[in-house]
Amino acid sequence: MCFVATSRFINFYGQKGARLTNDQTIYGFQPTRTYLIKTLSFFLFYAPELHLRGTHGCSWLSLCSKTTQIGLESVYTDFVICQHRWVHFITRLQSDWTEFILYVSILSSSHCSVTYAIPPIGHCVAERQRGVLGHTKC
Question: Which 3-state string (H, E, C) describes 12-66?
Answer without folding.
Answer: CCCCCCCCCCCCCCCCCCCCCCCHHHHHHHHHCCCHHHHHHHCCCCCCCCCCCCC
